Amino acid sequence: MTDYFKRKRTELLAVQNKIKTHVQTDNENALRASYMVSYLIAQKGEAHTIAETFIKPCLIDIATCMLDEKFAKQLSTIPLSNNTVARRIADLATNVEQTLVSIIKYRKCALQMDESTDVAGLAILLVFVRYENIHSFEEDLLFCRPLLSNTTGVQIFGLLDGFFTENKIPWTNCIDVCTDGAKAMVGATAGAVAKIKEKSKEIRSSHCILHRHALAMKTMPFSLKNVMDDAIKIINFIKSRPLKSRLFKILCDDMGSLHSTLLFHTEVRWLSRGKALTRLMELRTEVLSFLMDHNVTLGEIMNDVTRLCQFSYLADIFSKMNELSLSLQGRTMTIFDASHKVSAFKRKIDYWAQCTTKGKFECFPIMQAFLEENDEQVSTNIVNEIIEHLKQLKNSFEQYFPADREVLLKDHEWVLNPFSVCMKPSSLSSSDYERLIDLTSDLTLKSSFNSNSYAEFWLNLKDKS
User: 16 pLDDT exceeds 60?
Assistant: First the structure.
């Protein structure tokens, strides 16, 4: 009799465990699916309600059609309500923040800060962090928080210091702070950088290379500034009214144009000058036709060969600046790479000025194509305007990217290829140079250097030491 009840008890426990395992697996899978959907919603920036009102019904309908009711019922158990998705996204964000904080707590890092105001008038502080992670350098958003009242250096530092204190990140881990050069950031006494340096004397500061590039490209002779203003007037005349935009699109479609819309120029968007002017030149025939029917005054500008020649030059030069701006961005970009690109651009400016002086414009492809298409010669006035603009541009780059910084970097260029060093660099002490000799005499390390980037090489070497 005892054996009978023991056997029945065993059978009952087996059934319970089977049900428990099945239910637990389904719940875990539903939970994982809920987080995955929430993650995708956060990535796309969609409303949280889209999960329950659109995604889930679609999944159930697809399962019903392609599989059966059983799978559809399983999908219906996935929690995707508005509040649930919000919690999931908050959990994911918290996990990412905790992971990032746990890394920079124990490693050196560099910060980049920027304060800006959004379309709703809310002042926001963005802080990015760059740090060493295993065998590469990583770059992530550290935090994005609103400045509720003033946007002074004290307020900015208070928000940043509060984050460091809250997460127990030592200020000694921060080795550099990069800013946009605004007074609130770099003020001598009350600036955010000055307050940060009070926390650690070892911290260095730098002016963002992209901001310096944007400031350098603002320089323009008055005559070309008027040309730029005319181009913006023409673009705004067509783009400012929906009806005009629709009519212009119809015209472009009828003429078989490659594009059907012009592009706005926005001062705070650094790439917009080159893009807007290039598009204007590509659609110049369509724009002329449209303006002659709607605004003869602006139409006369687009029918002026001299003005179109100036438009084409500006489109070329700003497109070249856009290429430089884009090349200065990226997670793998280093100060050496950026310095070399800026140095090359300075030399290109000199070359463009020499070509313009000789009446050769093949370095400006849009302008060259326009001249060949219309069989035109560039007037002396326009040549002088271009040369003047290029001189001002070169002076601006010299101002924002001074040669003494390039000399300072050259003293550290042994980092790029330590195996090519034959004499002691001035930036190294005698003991450091002796260690460099030992390093460069190791054939195994030389092989490792040839198969990796210089950043990866030094990071791997640091891990071995």
Answer: no
